[in-house]
Amino acid sequence: MRARDNVADANDLQKHALDDSVVGSAVLLLGMLADPTRLRLMARLLDGEADVTALTEAAGAARPAVSQHLGKLRLAGLVVARRDGRRALHSVTDPHVRRLVVEALHAAEHRVSAAPGHHRVPAQP
C-alpha cells in the first residue's frame, strides 16, 4: 500500500483557490485545538460521550475551567452536548474533527518518540 492511499488528495485542494471563509474556519478549528486543555478534552471524547466529571479528571483541570473550555468547543461547533437527566453528555460532532484530533496526536507522538504508541502491537494472550 502506498503512503498516499490513506490521505485525501492534496491536488483536489490545489486545483482551486481556497475560499476565505474556508481558511477562516480552518484557522478557528486549529486554534481551538491549540490549547492543551481543549486538546485533552477532545482526546478523551474520542473514546465516546463523557460528562464534565469525567472530562475534568481526563484534563487534569478545575471543573469551572473545563466547563469554560467545553463552552468554547461547543460554540466553535467541535463538541455537542445532550441532556441525560441532570447530566450533560458531551461528544465530538464531526468525523472530520475526530480524524484531525487523532492525526494531530499521532503526528505529535512521532515527533517525541522513536516508537509511537499507536504503532505498538498489543501483546497476544
Can you tell me about this structure?
This protein has helices at about 10-15, 20-35, 35-45, 50-60, 65-75, 95-110, and strands at about 80-85, 85-90. It starts with 9 loop residues before the first helix and ends in a 13-residue tail after the last helix. The model has no long low-confidence stretch (mean pLDDT about 85). With about 120 residues, it is mainly α. The protein has a two-stranded antiparallel ribbon. A hairpin with a 2-residue loop joins strand 1 and strand 2 (about 85-90). It has one domain (about 20-110): Winged helix-like DNA-binding domain superfamily/Winged helix DNA-binding domain (Arc Repressor Mutant, subunit A), CATH 1.10.10.
Oligomer: single chain
Based on DSSP secondary structure assignment, what is the total number of beta strands? 2
The largest pleated sheet is described as: 2 strands, antiparallel
Structural class: mainly alpha
For CATH, the homologous superfamily is named as Winged helix-like DNA-binding domain superfamily/Winged helix DNA-binding domain
Distance between the termini: 29 Å
Query: Quick one: CATH class?
Result: Mainly Alpha
Question: In terms of topology, how is this protein built?
Answer:
Elements lengths: L9 H5 L5 H14 L2 H10 L6 H8 L3 H13 L3 E6 L2 E6 L2 H18 L13
Antiparallel strand pairs: 1-2
Helix pairs in contact: 3-4
